[in-house]
Amino acid sequence: xxxxxxxxxxxxxxxxxxxxxxxxxxxxxxxxxxxxxxxxxxxxxxxxxxxxxxxxxxxxxxxxxxxxxxxxxxxxxxxxxxxxxxxxxxxxxxxxxxxxxxxxxxxxxxxxxxxxxxxxxxxxxxxxxxxxxxxxxxxxxxxxxxxx
Amino acid sequence: xxxxxxxxxxxxxxxxxxxxxxxxxxxxxxxxxxxxxxxxxxxxxxxxxxxxxxxxxxxxxxxxxxxxxxxxxxxxxxxxxxxxxxxxxxxxxxxxxxxxxxxxxxxxxxxxxxxxxxxxxxxxxxxxxxxxxxxxxxxxxxxxxxxxxxxxxxxxxxxxxxxxxxxxxxxxxxxxxxxxxxxxxxxxxxxxxxxxxxxxxxxxxxxxxxxxxxxxxxxxxxxxxxxxxxxxxxxxxxxxxxxxxxxxxxxxxxxxxxxxxxxxxxxxxxxxxxxxxxxxxxxxxxxxxxxxxxxxxxxxxxxxxxxxxxxxxxxxxxxxxxxxxxxxxxxxxxxxxxxxxxxxxxxxxxxxxxxxxxxxxxxxxxxxxxxxxxxxxxxxxxxxxxxxxxxxxxxxxxxxxxxxxxxxxxxxxxxxxxxxxxxxxxxxxxxxxxxxxxxxxxxxxxxxxxxxxxxxxxxxxxxxxxxxxxxxxxxxxxxxxxxxxxxxxxxxxxxxxxxxxxxxxxxxxxxxxxxxxxxxxxxxxxxxxxxxxxxxxxxxxxxxxxxxxxxxxxxxxxxxxxxxxxxxxxxxxx
Lengths: 148, 574
Known about the structure:
The structure holds 2 protein chains of 2 kinds.
Chain A: H1 12-15, E1 41-47, E2 50-59, H2 64-76, E3 82-92, H3 94-106, E4 113-116, H4 120-128, E5 136-138, H5 141-146
Parallel strand pairs in A: 2-3, 3-4, 4-5
Antiparallel strand pairs in A: 1-2
Helix pairs in contact in A: 2-3
Chain B: H1 9-19, E1 33-37, H2 39-48, E2 61-63, H3 66-72, E3 78-83, H4 115-119, E4 128-133, H5 140-180, H6 185-200, E5 204-212, E6 218-225, H7 230-233, H8 245-248, E7 254-256, E8 283-290, E9 297-305, H9 313-349, E10 360-367, E11 376-384, E12 390-400, H10 401-420, H11 425-437, E13 445-453, E14 457-463, E15 468-471, E16 477-480, E17 496-500, E18 506-510, H12 522-534, H13 542-553, E19 561-568
Antiparallel strand pairs in B: 1-4, 2-3, 3-4, 5-6, 5-9, 7-8, 8-9, 10-19, 11-12, 12-13, 13-14, 14-17, 15-16, 15-18, 18-19
Helix pairs in contact in B: 5-6, 5-9, 6-9, 9-10, 10-11
């Protein structure tokens, strides 16, 4: 969102923004200028092998900041491994790829980063930009978690 | 708003106490029945009796007269009616000046209820319980009723006042939320006008506001509520007369029980008051809308009612509250619009006019996103090099808004600079990528760089950008440079490739907005592009390129689109 709404001062969604997930979101006007809401989502899960960051839906400019914050949260958990699971991603825009590169480079030498990508929706953009050369890409989550 | 329960333990205790106050002439208790009264039955009782069902003090207990007694229960000798818990001035709306609440801000927009219509439904939506006896009674129940009335009257008034207060705050809160969630000025002003007109119980309301057009000239628009626009269309804009000036100058709220009696009224030619045919206004309330960031007066709300004395302190308070929210919403919208215009202008101003190149026919396009507020970082460039070659550049900076636009400007200039040094494509991209790496924020820029040499050659490198389309004179189509290298800011080496580019051949460079979106994956998008191009008569005209964008994006591209189309016409007039 390019712009912060000046919300009602008594509304808690403003003060606690960014920390709370259960808070009521401000009302949105359908067809309004805030249409640029992410259609995708990001989830974080701790598994014995490390942390899995699962992205769903469109990984584009509107969702990319959430991915970035999720990566930062994941790092604070000091995982042995970070897997970014794109299995459920329906659209991978360049903004999303930029986040993958950023995570990979930011964690270089600290935490191994693996990306789960299967299917042309996600693989084709990674191939066109040759990020397949840079990222450790695995076809399934199991494979990413199991890989030595 | 929390409501008190209708029949709590307290009501029950009251009923029990009052029932025990019914005594015979000998002072002994008499049997008392309880009858639940629906609001309808209560209303009927009211119309049948005299005026005693109007507790002007707001108390909870009423005494029935003989007619009402007979209607209630044949043979009844005495009855008290205990009203259910609440209802805010339940009977005789408007008959109790001390408790007269404002018209509820949540009332329907057309609501202008008169006291008489409200009074035909004495208990509003609330029922009551009647305590009735058929035994001969003395006066003790009347004394008890009077005591209860005296004890509860003030309390009920206080509760009613608090409820009204809470309703006002509720209404303000919800209007505020709606208004500040908007960035569309037209919607903000209309919604604010409607909400405020309803909330203050005005017969009609208007909001006049000032905007500045692209030439920096100020102009005034208005919205209306409660009255069709035609009713105002014939009148000129209100001028800064003595009545209006305090509002337009932001000198505070003007409220008048009868504006026609105001000394400031009617002093200006030509109308000396309201123009002929103007809606009659006696009660008048006007509130300025002042920007919280700049202190500038953004506009003013004006409310009117044909009856005098309609607007109270409470109405003024609500109107000022809505004006405050409107100011925030308008400020937001203006700031947002300014940013959007600024970014659009910035990215537009950084896009070049393609130079005329002998032997080449060029079509270039840059289209900002058709939906949403986004301005992207797409760009194109056509550069004539000193050795007679021509460089074609197309690229996409990740992100939107001012940041993307400024990065784009820098990258475009960097590429231009290295290109003019005569560096080959792979070197141009390598230098730019290294330069980007030194930027504080990590950037991700895709770019296709191609140089047409005077000898039918095309030399190109591709930093993670979509492949170019080469259309041969014989109709065959090939894609150039797919997945040659990583984006700028990511990759370090950018291999070069060559192709023939002869008379009759065409080259098409484009950005991802043309072929992909949330609903269209890039593989599919490129296929559609190739099919569409194959079906077009060549060379492509500017209109054909526009049609291509329209056909591929459905006119609703949510990303920006840039493209360069080059037709190699031949030796030409050079």
